[in-house]
Amino acid sequence: MDYNMNNLIPFIPPSEYDRVAEQFLEEYCPEALKRPMAVPIENIAADMGLKVQYVCLSEEADIYGATIFTDGALEIYDPEDGLYDTKVFKRKTVLIDPEAVKKTNVGCKHNTLAHECVHWYKHRLYYKMQKFTAPRMARFCKCSVNQLPYATEDENIMEGQAIGIAPRILMPKATFIEAASQYDIVYGKDNWQAIYGLADLFDVSKQSVMIRLEECNLL
Q: Is 5 helix (H, G, I), strand (E, B) or coil?
């Protein structure tokens, strides 16, 4: 994997997302590359040494998750008081906003956790370097349903990589196609039986399944 030596962001074009997802699973869950299954992303996060906590990250519940790369303070939202406050977190902490995922489904929670795992897997060198350029500040990334207005170009690149790779970890291409082949999927037709069945099998959202079907040229 090549890196931009100025900022240590990996070069990962979209055409390589499936390969990166397979490399991730080869290391953390090789059985997911052999048969269709729900990837145990919570167990994988634990195996990576990541500690998952559920805290509210914004009043609007539009920030799904965050990854802490260095010890330090992060602003969080207290829904009971209706106020923002800062709290100190340890590195290798992943934060999931329960109110944000409550608005969607369990599949969204799994995708958010996979998304944060990708950030740690591929982007921690970038944030490690940032620690030395601003040593008093905690280094973290927040991941929103929409692009954050204050995000830098570097952060947008890494966010795009995590968005592209995370669902491919949860639905590896070969086994996803194998599972989808059990259904009569036809372009332009009602394929809800297949979509619901695949969402249940891989424990992801129906929207993620529809996108993955298109990526695999099945829909």
A: coil
Q: How far apart are CA 31 and CA 218, in angstroms?
A: 23
SS3 66: strand
Phi, psi of 8 (to 5 degrees): 65, 25
Q: Quote the crossing angle between the two packed helices 106-133 and 206-215, to the nearest 10°.
A: 70
Q: When comparing pLDDT for 167 and 9, which is higher?
A: 167
Instruction: Give, in degrees to the nearest 5, the angle at Cα 163 between 60 and 21.
Output: 145
Please give the pLDDT value at position 106. Answer: 59
Q: Average pLDDT for residues 73-93, to the nearest whole number?
A: 88
Type of residue at 72:
G
Q: What are residue 63's DSSP bridge partners? A: 144
* Helix ranges (DSSP H) in the chain: 17-28, 41-47, 98-102, 106-133, 153-170, 173-180, 192-202, 206-215
| The residue to which tokens 């591929």 are assigned | 122
Which of 144, 97, 118, 122 has its CA nearest to residue 39? Answer: 118
